[in-house]
Design a protein that fits this description.
Elements (H helix, E strand, L loop, with lengths): L1 H16 L3 H33 L14
Helix pairs in contact: 1-2
C-alpha cells in the first residue's frame, strides 16, 4: 500500500510541474489508478484481518487417515 501512495505522490508532483494537456491526461489517469489500487489493497487487508479474527476449527479422524 505504501508503494501505491508513493506512486500517487510522484504523479501529483509531476502534474504540478507541467501544464501540457497531452502530458496531464495520462498522469491524471495513472494517479487515479494508483488511488483505486490503494483502495482495493485496503479492502483486501480488511478481509484478511476479518478472517484472522475468526476462530477456525480443523477436525481430524481419530486414527489420522483412512487407510
Amino acid at each position: 500500500m505504501a508503494a501505491e501512495q508513493k506512486a500517487r505522490s510522484t504523479y501529483e508532483y509531476l502534474i504540478d510541474l507541467t501544464d501540457d494537456p497531452d502530458v496531464l491526461a495520462p498522469l491524471r489517469f495513472l494517479r487515479e489508478r494508483e488511488i483505486v489500487h490503494f483502495q482495493r489493497f485496503g479492502e483486501a487487508l480488511d478481509y484478511a484481518r476479518d478472517y484472522l479474527k475468526q476462530q477456525h476449527y480443523f477436525f481430524m479422524q481419530k486414527n489420522g487417515c483412512n487407510s
